[in-house]
Amino acid sequence: MKISFIEEDNWPVRRVLAVLSKTADDFTPRMKAIAGVLDDETEQNFDEQGRPPWTPLAKSTLKRRPDRADGMILQDTGRLKASISTSYGKDFAVIGSNSVYARIHQLGGSIKVGERTGAVRLRTDKNGELVRQRGHPNLARFAKKSHKQAILKPWASGGYEIDIPARPYLQISSEGWQEIGAIVGDVMDEAARNIRKGRK
Predict the structure, then answer these.
(1) Are residues 22 and 73 in the same domain?
(2) For each of the chain's 200 residues, which pLDDT tens digit applies?
(3) Can you tell me the distance from the alpha carbon of 131 to that of 142, in angstroms, rounded to the nearest whole number?
(4) Domain count of the fold of the chain
(5) Is 15 found in the same domain as 78?
(6) Do both 175 and 80 map to the same domain?
């Protein structure tokens, strides 16, 4: 996934860059500066857990993973944040991630998990009864390949759907847009100077 900052709802900047993209001028240094702003803005989003704040973790998630109660959202493994990179050229600056789950965390959505079936090998005693886990009389013990006394138990899991709320980590704040606007203003001034030079 590559999300360009001009995909944000900032039409004045879009129009300016659309005009500049048709010129022969090379604005790579300015685009590099804009990419730096995008990177800083994203870093701040992770540090502040969203601006405005992201949707908190669901109670079901915290019940399943109590260790996440004091953790940072979208930073359980750090892979998403580490996958984010910027790119720039003479007339563009973008930021994005190649992570398979980057888009759904940015935009939100639903994940459908289909029905699944399988079988597990469980240990049995000499009478063919399931061997239970010590201290857990309702739980059976899994059998290794070396265990000769075992039975194969089929299992099935119904399909379900997981709703993921949008947590826009690529959000650009008003301050960030002001920085970008100032850089774009410099680009326009430079383009105008180059046009004037070309007329001489």
Answers:
(1) yes
(2) 333 444 444 555 556 666 666 665 678 888 899 999 999 999 999 999 999 999 998 888 888 888 887 788 999 889 999 999 999 988 788 899 999 999 999 999 999 989 999 999 999 999 999 999 998 989 999 999 899 999 999 999 889 898 999 999 999 999 999 998 898 888 778 777 776 776 54
(3) 9
(4) 2
(5) yes
(6) yes
Containing domain of residue 133, as a range?
115-158
Shared-domain flag, residues 107 and 119: no
Predicted TM-score (pTM) of this structure: 0.69
Tokens representing residue 121 in the block? 């090998």
